[in-house]
Amino acid sequence: MGSLSLKPPSSSIPRVASQERSLIPVGMSTILPDAARRIRHLEQTLLAVLARGGYEEIILPMFEYLDVLAPGLESELIEKSYQFVDRMTGRLMLLRPDATAQIARTVAMGMMGTRLPLRLCYRTSVFRYEREHAGRDREIFQVGAELIGVDGVAGDAEVLTLLLECLNRVGLSSFKVAVGHVGFFTALLVRSGLSTEGQKRVEQAAARKDMPLLENLLAREGVSRSTARVILEALELCGGPDVLARGRKLVGRDRTLLRPLDRLDQVYERLISPGQQAVLIDLGEFRGFEYYDGIVFDVFAPGIGAELGGGGRYDHLMGRFGLTAASTGFALDVDRVFRAIDMSEHALPSRPAVSTKDRAKNASVLAPGRRRSRV
Question: How far is it, in rounded angstroms, from Cα 224 to Cα 23?
Fold first, then answer.
């Protein structure tokens, strides 16, 4: 592609004229040739970074049987999936809503053999029903990576380092990666004595960062004021190492709560280098409680009203398909990365790489108030 520059003519991937939109389903898009070349350039650059890290590309089926993939999908995601009956078998099928669950199913079924670890990457589209006013596409272009069979801090740090390299390589000069731990906030809620139903409602309010509702729910559940203050403060803690110090002070000697903080500390130490200011510790950062079970993270950039991507550790997901294996990964929304680059100071390098083997201090970068899920 030579001197191709990734500078879209507008703040998003060009769409067809508005008067023609009635010809295309809401939330879908036709990407015209000039934009298509730039999108492929971006994808190839990301895949080249992943290939250099030893990640092999996998191409996933567009359709899956619902009963086969359902163990790896949250109920909310199943509700958003496009479903239909297979004319040959009469079984219910769905249009791919998530790539990670597909990879977990593929590995657990033994289709990749028995060797571990596995380093896999993909570029694909996922399809999810969104109401028109939700401001989200129904077809989402993704590039992602999954590391299967590497446990502990080493696996978390490898995937996060790879994510940072991807973002830097495509020329994204201004972004933040908010890193948290699902176990910290869930342990806080368990310690508070919430009922099962109350905990679910509190989780949903916390995921939306709806602080007034969260405060009201805690009061209705009879949570003491001191415990509620800890939960509310923890949800807002975001920044550098001082966040961990404050978190430890909040939880005292409770080892169930200290262990996630220790893990965050160890991962953060591996990511921080001189001049590296892109990584934040966010004790209120968590993705799906049913999906992730360890370190989690989201990527934000100025001017983009939603996360560019994210991921985390999902060791239990593999077990839903019958194989226990440590697993972690991430996915990037190509459209949002494309828009973020347009607003960034630096364009993508003119020649694509060749494939070989805080919110507290910078509120304009993070996008609070949105429920986050692997894009």
Answer: 56
Instruction: Kindly give the residue spans of alpha helices, DSSP state H, lying in the chain.
Output: 33-52, 66-69, 75-80, 99-108, 152-169, 182-191, 196-207, 211-220, 225-236, 241-251, 255-271, 315-320, 334-343
pLDDT tens digits along 194-227:
988 888 888 888 877 889 999 999 999 999 999 9
209 occurs within a structural domain: no
Q: What is the pLDDT of residues 173-189, one digit of tens each?
A: 889 999 999 999 889 88
Examine residue 233 and state whether it is found in any structural domain, yes or no: no
106/103 Cα distance (integer angstroms): 5
Q: How many domains is the chain built from?
A: 1
What is the Cα gyration radius of the chain? 21
Look up the pTM and report it: 0.84
Phi, psi of 225 (to 5 degrees): -60, -40
Question: In sequence order, what are the beta bridge partners of 31?
Answer: none
